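Example (one chain per record):
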Amino acid sequence: MRKLIGLVAVSLCLAVVSSSSLAPVDAQVKDKKAKVDPKKDAKKEVAPAEAGWTVEVYKAKDGFRFRIKDADDKTVAMPTKGYETKEEVLKLLDQIKVTLNKVKPTEAD
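Predicted structure:
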């Protein structure tokens, strides 16, 4: 059961991370005199891979693990346990990718 919960948690984190449909929201302009040019302020939507996101596989005390880092080099997702071989970690990452491509995120109650 713990493995399932860990896999679901990592999957949800990856879903949020890999979702390229999230566009930045512009802030409200407090000064009504200031004009905002939407074309100038429009930001190009960038996929996580293009924005500097990385997946690192590394050797830890309890085996091999992976971590997903954002463009600011902050860890945003990692497994709850270590795996015996690097191949197991790569297989898990492939399973997560397949799952995230098939499943749409839902809101939890």
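Caption: The two ends are 20 Å apart (CA to CA).
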